[in-house]
Design brief:
The protein has 184 residues and is an alpha/beta fold. It is 44% helix and 19% strand. It has a six-stranded parallel β-sheet with strand order 3-2-1-4-5-6.
Length: 184
């Protein structure tokens, strides 16, 4: 399956100030995620940001909001972001009505909110694509098992650089030059 800009959206899950410090390889997680979100903004891919119980866990990191170009987010209590009616509406109300049915997913934690969201997106008829260098868990084992489970559920896996170039499609344009500079 080819990932195309006109059929893709992104769900940015819970990069919150009280959770991120506990993540494995948090510096690389944030670096890759900022690169991804900045590139998606350049490519004009719509993004929806969520926060898990922000009253207790805080807001998403400022660099995540900045990279996405918005400070808007949907507060949730369910682990799966797709259980939120606001998230469903932001994604177009379901795959039958939505024009963007490929959903890139990044965020934390890989084995909880990220995985459950991907499973629910797949069950609803979307094609979730997990950006593996833009997810983390407190333990590497939990992330590894989440990736195994995601594959078993039919969820596609990619990296931030791979998907940015796939969405860009060809060299020679101003957008290509911006994306190339971003990933260097």
């Amino acid at each position: 399956m080819r990932i195309t800009a006109d059929t893709t959206a992104c769900l940015v899950i819970d990069y919150q100030e009280k959770i991120v410090p506990a993540m494995a390889n948090k510096e690389k997680l944030i670096q890759n995620s900022v690169k991804l979100l900045t590139g998606l903004r350049i490519l004009q891919i719509p993004m929806t940001i969520t926060g898990q119980y922000t009253k207790g866990l805080g807001l998403n990191l400022p660099e995540i909001f900045q990279a996405a170009g918005t400070e808007n987010y949907i507060d949730k209590l369910t682990f799966s972001a797709y259980e939120s009616e606001e998230v469903k509406a932001a994604l177009g109300g379901g795959p039958e009505q939505a024009t963007r049915t490929t959903i890139l997913v990044c965020g934390i934690e890989a084995h909880v909110c990220v995985l459950q969201t991907c499973i629910d997106l797949k069950a609803a008829g979307y094609q979730p694509v997990l950006v593996v260098d833009c997810i983390s868990s407190r333990s590497e084992t939990d992330k590894e098992v989440a990736l195994i489970r995601a594959r078993q559920e039919g969820i596609l896996l990619t990296t931030s650089e791979a998907v940015l170039f796939e969405l860009t499609r060809k060299a020679g344009s101003a957008v290509f030059k911006e994306i190339s500079q971003l990933v260097k």
